[in-house]
Specification:
This is Beta-glucosidase BglX. Keywords: Carbohydrate metabolism, Glycosidase, Hydrolase. Belongs to the glycosyl hydrolase 3 family. It contains 21 helices and 26 strands. The protein is of the alpha/beta class. The protein has three domains: 343 residues, Glycoside hydrolase, family 3, N-terminal domain (TIM Barrel), CATH 3.20.20; 175 residues, Rossmann fold (3-Layer(aba) Sandwich), CATH 3.40.50.1700; 115 residues, Immunoglobulins (Immunoglobulin-like, Sandwich). The protein binds alpha-D-glucopyranose (GLC). Alpha-D-glucopyranose binds next to loops.
Length: 723
């Protein structure tokens, strides 16, 4: 690839052209095409010059559309600088995969990577260059609507998924492999910890907690070569991330060495004003550019103020040139100066998008993302059984999730159609809407249930009840559906519930009433087929929760890697003055790492190669697992540790490794893990990242609560190893 002299391009650009390069606008500014510039630019105070010299556009796809906009843009841009096309390809482009919170439950990095590769290929032929993904915000609060976009509450697992998604999106060389897209890790940082679980709300935490739990996955994505970072809407230590110099310059760019493009989230630069740290657009622009934000998404602070700020000496032109250079470097990395149209190809769109092989990946990932939460001998179903399929999701294709953007429900089979493909013995009745129910619906449902051998209830949240700006204070199923479940209970037939939801729910009135519960999340384009395959035992469910299910919203936040406190409650002690509730247990309803199978696994013989370790040694941890049932299955074996005495308090459990193992009926396998001193390090009082001498416990099992326990002592203290 010929080297482009980017710096000389910048030297030949006017101040206005350089500022325009930092502007990102939505597609409606460019529609009307044939070079006409439309969109609300007057009300945003954006001139036609700015649109014609802008650096990137978001939310546009379609090979023909992208090619037309790019061609027009190149005609008007003095320097032949191509537009960057960016979009939210969070869990699929047209072939929609399960939501990331579901993919997290697969614990399958290979499939996660494959799903990102497929998404990238479909987006690339549709003209997209950059995806605003992976979203790796750690979450502990299911009231927050955006938990659906993340892989859960554990930083180790989120980091592994972050790497897998970046590998899938970007491949090895973006200039060579034009069927990939640049990734943009988001939302930097700690957007997933808003007070009250209310979206965009204040985030308040210590630097230690930020580093220990919330930053790991962003860093993992960048270590994997992620090209871009998106700022978050929230404050970090009282300073909005988008204007936070410590977070963006000191930590992201200096400490972590990130020199890629930093883009604001939508409107986040101008939001420095309502946050109360900028009195006007000029102040907001100054704070953002000083913090190192290169692209302003969808607000005109840079456009309207940066030129004056530079001419008045309040901002150096060097900062502007550095931002422009980072943007042009990304365009160069994508090969856009050579080929501004990259992979955009209307013919290829027809071959690649929603191909049979892409659908197969989506189905397999959906099968591995479902989690069996309960099964009192109801599942799998027999094809001879008469099934009454009832509920608002029985015939609904609203199973793509809130961030499925280009996903089309008419390309999505519903559960009734999927079951009918496997058996003719299905009667369907709606039973209720998501939030309302009528007597007629109940009557029809009761009739169907009475005539059946087994009731399958398809219930859940509208996809629009999670996602951005969709936090819920009450995370139970809507009352109408709880009423439907109660009515079905009176029929005294086995009940299997299928849940379609974008967050852990308060399962009162569901888990206790049903005989079996399958958590399907929003399983995507092939989700209904995946569920049908599981219901009929073609697939043995293997998913494990990566986010705790609370007993009630009042228990939030509840997560597995919590601290012990000075007055720990073991669940049985009669002492009064302990850290406990009067009305619910301390443990979550369903813990991190939990998931059932159609078979059973027995863990035995936990053995450590030694009961002591020095920093230059490893401890081998082994355990045997036996499949005692009649189904072949995949078990996710989890390894946790606990540092019994730290320089600061340590979690009661920390996930450090896991393995997926396939076992035939009655088969026994030995699983081995290697544990090193590096896995024992954490941030000390002086913020050094080191390990402690002393006793550690080890836990191995099929969930964070069902474990075998062992122990060892680390013999050597280490000095600061902040590598
Ligand atoms: C939204 C979201 C962000 C998304 C961006 C562009 O506000 O916070 O995740 O990538 O805008 O759509």
């Amino acid at each position: 690839m010929a080297q482009i002299d980017l710096k000389s391009i910048i030297q030949n650009m006017t101040l206005e052209e350089k500022v325009a390069q930092l502007m990102q606008l939505s597609g409606n500014f460019y529609y009307g095409l044939a070079g006409e510039i439309t969109g609300p630019f007057e009300e945003m105070g954006i001139s036609e010059f700015v649109v014609k010299n802008s650096g990137s556009v978001l939310g546009v796809s379609g090979a023909d559309t992208v090619r037309k906009i790019q061609a027009e843009h190149l005609k008007t841009n003095r320097h032949g600088i191509p537009l960057l096309f960016m979009a939210d390809i969070v869990h699929g482009f047209k072939t929609i995969f399960p939501i990331p919170l579901a993919v997290g439950c697969s614990w399958d990095m290979e499939l996660a990577e494959k799903s990102a590769e497929v998404a990238a290929s479909e987006a690339a032929v549709a003209g997209v260059h950059v995806t605003f993904a992976p979203m790796v915000d750690l979450v502990r609060d299911p009231r927050w609507g955006r938990v659906l976009e993340t892989t859960g509450e554990d930083s180790y697992l989120n980091s592994a998924f972050a790497k897998a998604f970046v590998r899938g999106f970007q491949g090895k060389d973006l200039a060579v492999d034009q069927m990939r897209v640049a990734a943009c890790v988001k939302h930097f940082a700690a957007y997933g910890a808003p007070e009250g679980g209310r979206d965009y709300n204040t985030v308040n935490m210590s630097e230690r907690q930020l580093r220990e739990s919330y930053l790991s996955a962003y860093k993992a994505a960048l270590d994997e070569g992620c090209e871009m970072v998106m700022t978050s809407f929230n404050t970090v230590d009282g300073i909005p991330a988008t204007g936070n110099k410590w977070l963006m310059r000191d930590l992201l760019r200096k400490e972590w060495g990130f020199d890629g493009v930093l883009i604001s989230d939508w409107g986040a630069v101008k939001e420095l004003i309502p946050h109360g740290v900028a009195g006007n657009e000029a102040e907001a622009a100054r704070k953002a550019i000083l913090a190192g934000v290169d692209i302003e998404m969808m607000t005109p602070c840079y456009i309207r103020s940066l030129k004056n700020l530079i001419e008045s000496g309040k901002v150096t032109e060097t900062l502007l040139d550095e931002a422009v250079l980072r943007i042009l470097k990304l365009k160069e990395k994508l090969g856009l100066f050579e080929n501004p149209y990259r992979a955009a190809d209307a013919v290829k769109e027809k071959e690649v998008i929603l191909s049979e092989s892409n659908r197969e990946v989506a189905c397999e990932l959906a099968e591995k993302s479902c989690v069996l939460l309960k099964n009192d001998n109801v599942l799998p179903l027999d094809k001879q059984q008469n099934i009454a399929l009832i509920g608002p999701f029985a015939q609904s294709s609203d199973i793509l999730g809130a961030w499925s953007w280009q996903g089309e429900v008419d390309n999505t089979a519903n559960l009734h159609e999927a079951l009918q493909a496997l058996t003719t013995n299905v009667t369907v009745a709606q039973g209720s809407h998501v939030e309302t129910i009528t007597d007629e619906q109940v009557t029809e449902a009761i009739e169907a249930a009475k005539a059946a051998d087994v009731i399958v209830l398809a219930v859940g949240e509208y996809a629009s009840m999670s996602g951005e700006a969709c936090s819920r204070a009450d995370i139970t199923l809507p009352e109408a559906q709880l009423h439907l479940i109660k009515q079905m209970k009176t029929i005294n037939k086995p009940i299997a519930v299928i849940l379609f939801n974008g967050r852990p729910l308060d399962l009162h009135g569901v888990l206790d009433e049903a005989d079996a519960v399958l958590e399907a999340w929003y399983p995507g384009t092939e989700g209904a087929s995946a569920i049908a395959n599981i219901l009929f035992g073609k697939v043995n469910p293997s998913g494990k929760l990566t986010m705790s299910f609370p007993h009630t919203a009042g228990q939030i936040p509840v997560y597995y890697n919590a601290y012990n406190t000075g007055r720990p409650y073991d669940g049985v002690s009669r002492d009064h003055y302990l850290s406990k509730y009067l009305d619910i247990p301390n443990k979550p309803l369903l813990p991190f790492g939990f998931g059932l199978s159609y078979t059973n696994y027995i863990y035995e013989n936990l053995r450590l190669s030694s009961d002591t370790m020095t920093a230059d040694e490893q401890i081998q941890v082994s355990v045997t697992i036996t499949n005692t049932g009649n189904y072949t299955g995949e078990e996710i074996v989890q390894l946790y540790i606990r540092d019994m005495t730290g320089d600061v308090v340590r979690p009661v459990k920390e996930l450090k490794d896991f393995q997926k193992v396939s076992l035939n009926p009655k088969e026994t396998k030995e699983i081995q893990f290697q544990l090193t001193e590096a896995q024992l390090r954490y941030y000390h009082q002086d913020m050094s990242f080191t390990s402690d001498e002393g006793l550690f416990e080890i836990y191995v099992g099929g969930s964070s609560e069902d474990v075998l326990t062992g122990g060892f002592t680390l013999k050597k203290m280490y000095t600061n190893l902040n590598d």
